[in-house]
Structures are given as C-alpha cells and as structure tokens.
Specification:
75% helix, five-stranded mixed beta sheet, alpha/beta, 383 residues
Length: 383
Amino acid sequence: MIQVGEYVLGPVELAAIGAVVLVILLLILSIRAAGRSARVAEPLAHQIGALGQRVEGLSAGQQQLSGGLTHVAEAQAAAQANLLQHMEKRLQQVNHQMTENLQGSARRTAHSLGELQERLKTIDKAQENITKLSGDVLSLQDILSNKQTRGAFGEIQLNDIVSKALPKDSYTLQHTLSNGKRADCLIHLPNPPGPIVIDSKFPLEAYEALRRADTQAQLNEAARMLRTSVKAHIKAISAKYILEGETADGALMFLPSEAVYAELHANFPELVREGFAARVWIVSPTTCMATLNTMRAILKDARMREQAGAIRRELGLLYADVERLGTRVENLDRHFGQAAKDLSDIKISADKAGRRARRLDNFDFEELAPESEEAVPLVEPKT
C-alpha cells in the first residue's frame, strides 16, 4: 500500500491509476502518431485530391465522349435512315423506270411481232399468189400451145379492149360478112371509111423458135418461119375481110402480144411495109386501144352530124321559147307597172283620206254649231 497524503492507495487503486496513466500515455502517443501520420498523409491527400479531380475530369470527358458518341450514333442512325430512305426511293424509281422500260419493250416487241406476223401473212399470201400465178402460167402455156385455144385467147383479149374503148352499139363480135367469112370484130364506122374488120392472129410458134434459137442456122430458120406465118396472115385478112362496098378499104390484124409486135417492127420492117401495101395494119394491145379511141372520136363526130337536123330543130324551138319568154316578161313588166301605178294611186287616196280625217278631228263643233238644233248633213244632198 502507498499512502499519499490523506489517502492510502491500495493495489487496486494503484492498478487503476496505472491503467489511467497508461491510457493517457497511449492517447498522447496516438495523437503524436496521428500528427505525424497527418503530416505524412497530407501530400498523399493532395495527390489523392488531384487524382480525384483528374478522375472527375476523366468522368466529365467520358460523359462528353459518351454524349458525343451518342450524338454521332444518332447522326449516323439518321444518316443511315436517310440513306435507306433515299435508296428505297431510288430503288422505287429504278424499279418503276425498269418496269416502264420493260413494258415499253414488251409493247414494242409485241408490235414488232405483230408487224412481223402481218409481213409473214403478206409473204404467205404472196407465196400463194406466186404459186397460183405459177399454175396460171402453166395453164397459159397450155392454152398458148394449142392453136385453137390460142386463137380464143386472142379473141377474148380483143373483145376486152374493144368493149372498154367503144360503145356497145358501135361494134359487132363474130360478124359474118357477105362472103360467109366470120370476122372477130367489125367496127361500124360511117362512110368514109366504112365498117372496118379487126382479126386476131398470134404467130407464137415462129416467135418462140426465134427466141430459142442458139445458132445462126436456127435463127435464120425461125426468121423464115415468122415471115411465112405473118405473110400468110396478112394475105388471108386482105382476101377475107376487105370487101368493096361492104367494108372499109383496109383491115386491122390484132397481135395479142407486145413482144411479137415489137419484134416485127424492130427486126422485120419489111413485113410491116407489106401489111401497109396490102392495106392490113398490124396493131398490138396498146396501139389497138389508141386506134379504137380515134375511131370513137370519128363515131362521135358522125353521130353529131346525123343529129345536126334534130339539133337545128331543137335550136329553133328553143329560139321560139326564148321569144315567148321575152313577150311574157314584157307583159309581166307591164302588169308590174300598172300594179305600181295602182299602188301609187291607192297611197295618194289614203293620204287624202288621212288628211280629211285629221281636219275632222280638229273641228270645234260647239263653235261651228248653229243655234238651231237641226243636224248638219255630212254628205251633199242628191239633186
């Protein structure tokens, strides 16, 4: 035990005091250590604050970066949307244009195919016509190979030309003359020259031999055959169809082939001159038509001469009708003059009656009336 003044300290009190002292010492040591720690930690705190500021700056930069990235992402998304919309519109336009082009191409193709089909139809029709024409040519060759059918062919062609060029009453087909010979066609021309005969001839064998000739001997033989045939036709026509007092002083030999006619005039002019000497004129379809038109003018002139008397009578009657018409016009004019005079007189009378009516309307009967009550007659008394 320890006695301190009045107080006696036992072991327990000493232990408590020692514990308190120890605690105080520990507190003092702790405070000192804390001070040293604070001094030591102050730079670290500054560094930590700076680091915090940097972290805050980085956070703000990150936020700005995040905002920028968001804006960029939104802009990119909008740009992508605009691009997609533009691409869709462009694709629609391209699709529409391609559709129109395809439709136009389809229409043009269909039109071209239609035209091609029409042309093919035309070609098929032409082919059919060619096939038919080939058959007709073969038939024509068969017809021309026979003398009788060839003569009928020439007569039919002559009849067609004459019927187109002349009136029906100006010619006779297959006319029989007084000598018993039958002419293919007789044109009833007035005198002179008188009725003229047209006979159809077709020296085809000699002409074909002339065209097929390969050697000079064959050519000479074919020319001889043609001369003989044409001379025989000229002689027969001159003898049969030129009759004095019945027909004209000449006749026409109709060749239904322009080629034969041209061959005669080009290479056999002596046959043409021989025909002139025999008063037989050789004509082709073309020259026959021209000759018939001349004959038509002659017929027209002759008929006009025949009708000259009737025309003069009609002119006399017409003159009388004109004179009668003039007389009636004069009478009508005189009647019109009399009617005009009567109208003028009626107008004058109407004017006078109007003036008298106006004067009567202006009278003052009270002033003019006498004192007597006798009535004044409006008309003069009859005597």
